[in-house]
Amino acid sequence: MIVRLSKSPEDTRDTAAWLIEKIDARGLMALSGPLGAGKTEFARGVAHALGIRKPVTSPTFTLHKTYPYTWEGQRRIFNHLDLYRVQSVKEVRAIGFKELIADPEHLILVEWPEKIRGLLPYFTINIRLSYDKNPKERKIKISSRRSIR
Ligand SMILES: Nc1ncnc2c1ncn2[C@@H]1O[C@H](COP(=O)(O)OP(=O)(O)OP(=O)(O)O)[C@@H](O)[C@H]1O
Ligand SMILES: [Mg+2]
To answer: How far does residue 127's CA lie from ligand 1's centre (Å)?
Structure first.
């Protein structure tokens, strides 16, 4: 488990950028934590690290947003999912979630992953954001069965 203390939104984005390098910009990141903890802020750090210039907004009303990027000369897609409003696993299956995670070149970030625990792949990267002492501080805990070097 990797634990980081973030002291600002920028710190959170920097941690995201650091992780993207470690995981070679592929796989599924499951981001959990209470409302306003910084999940979307983390997603912004991911997008920035990938060279995505389009602003990342919370896809609460869209469920799934895609952002193309190029990594090591390959064209790929960053998939940002926000499952806050999801009522059943069926809704997530309906957007082709299984096909999405079957492609090892995809990068996926899921906010509110507890809605679909049973669908998450074995090598999920779990990221837990929590509030800390100071209003601007967050604890970021990263764990996975996949090795993060
Ligand atoms: N250290 C920090 N890391 C991340 N965000 C921070 C930090 N300190 C303050 N903030 C603020 O907290 C808010 C985090 O909002 P954000 O939308 O990223 O949360 P969220 O976890 O995605 O919430 P939701 O559950 O509503 O989707 C932002 O307004 C951000 O500026
Ligand atoms: Mg959010």
So the answer is: 14
Task: Quick: pLDDT tens for 120-136.
Answer: 999 999 999 999 999 99
Q: Is the C-alpha dihedral spanning 40, 123, 75, 11 positive or negative? A: positive
Question: What confidence tens digit (pLDDT) does each residue in 61-98 have?
Answer: 789 999 999 999 999 999 999 999 999 999 999 999 99
Helix (H) / strand (E) containing 90: helix 89-94
Kindly give the distance from the C-alpha atom of residue 40 to the centroid of ligand 2, in angstroms, as a whole number. 4
Q: Position 120: which residue type?
A: L
Place of tokens 């805990």: 141
Residues of the domain holding 30: 2-144
Domain count across the chain: 1
Residue nearest to atom 14 of ligand 1 (CA): 38
Asked if the structure places residue 44 within a domain, the reply is yes
**SS3 state at 66:** strand
